[in-house]
Amino acid sequence: MANSNTSGNSSIKKSFELPKYISNTVKFLEFFSGNLALKFALKLFFSPIKFKRPEREDKLYSAARKSILKNNLGNDFELMVWGEENEKSILLVHGWSGRGTQFHKLIEELLKHKWKVISFNAPAHGFSKQKQTSLLEFTYCCLQITNELGPIDFAIGHSLGSGALLNALDQGSNFKKIVSIGTPATIGMVVEDFSKLIGGSPKIASGILKHIENNFKVDVSKISSNYLAEKYNPEGLILHDAEDADVPVKNAQLLHKSWTNSSLHLSSGLGHRKILNHEDSISRIIAFLESDVA
Asked: Would you tell me how many other CB atoms lie within 10 Å of the CB of residue 62?
């Protein structure tokens, strides 16, 4: 494992701070009715925040070949493709409350290296009218893209997007190399951190996990990134910032321990989102992807 010389910043904050009234509401509801509190928490958990696309990404978005696809739930999502058809292809998957063009500097560099870049804005993101989505729906979008465009050997995921790629492996995709950036190791850790964020008790976290298992008919441990990385063990590069306030660095360490065919690089001072387009991150990603690639 190598360490970056990026200057540290111990005051890095979360990408988005929830308004105080949300935690107050959760605590108030829990006091009177655990069921009402859980219902409110579940609505928050499955509802991403739609951030406006910044102007710095507009040119890249305009340059994309765009189309609308449907996943196997029948929900629309926006596909974006850059580069020529006869070039090596790579799939980029954004995280929760993110967008495909969030990788703008990385995409520009990949295009310089003659990659065809494929990304999308997931349901309930971008211009989607949908309000709620899930990790598994992200996965279904990845599968639909490979159904439409053919096999894709290389992929990059940010946060939940990496989890979607690993779940896609479990449903028939065959990514040879995966770059995982700022990724939660387990669904349990995601839910625990979310419950604390909204001011909920351990009962809220337990209720969310039970809902996921019952509603999606899954074992949460078996859709977690660390389990799937160990099971399929593709060649991997894990990038994570030591001061990530959204997904604590212990997630990267646990994921790397399970993913024996991966290398881990920890940066410092970049947080959860700046790491995506940092010069050192991009250089490492390009070197990893292009080794042994014709």
From this structure: 9
Pair 152, 110 in one domain:
yes
In this model, does residue 225 exceed pLDDT 50? yes
Helical packing angle, 160-170 and 225-232, nearest 10°: 40
Q: Any idea what the CATH number is for the domain that residue 87 is in?
A: 3.40.50.1820
Q: Which one, of 199, 212, 179, lies nearest residue 281 by Cα?
A: 179
Q: Which domain holds residue 206?
A: 18-47+187-213
Phi, then psi, of 127 in degrees rounded to 5 = -90, 5
Q: How far apart are CA 56 and CA 104, in angstroms?
A: 8
Whether residues 174 and 194 fall in one domain: no
Sheet holding 154-158, edge to edge: 2-3, 262-267, 235-241, 177-181, 154-158, 88-93, 115-121, 76-82, 65-70
Lowest mean pLDDT across 35-49, 82-96, 126-140: 82-96
- Cβ pair 90, 100 in contact under 8 A: no
Cα 252 from Cα 259, distance rounded (Å): 10
Cβ proximity of 135 and 160 under 8 Å: yes
**pTM of structure:** 0.93
- 30 burial type by CB count under 10 A (0-12 exposed, 13-18 middle, 19+ buried): buried
pLDDT in tens, 253-277: 999 999 999 999 999 999 999 999 9
Q: What angle do CA 1, 286, 273 make, to 5 degrees?
A: 75
DSSP, collapsed to helix, strand or coil, labels residue 266 as: strand
Structural domain count, the chain:
2
- For tokens 């108030």, the residue is 28
Decide: 174 and 233 in contact? Cβ < 8 Å.
no
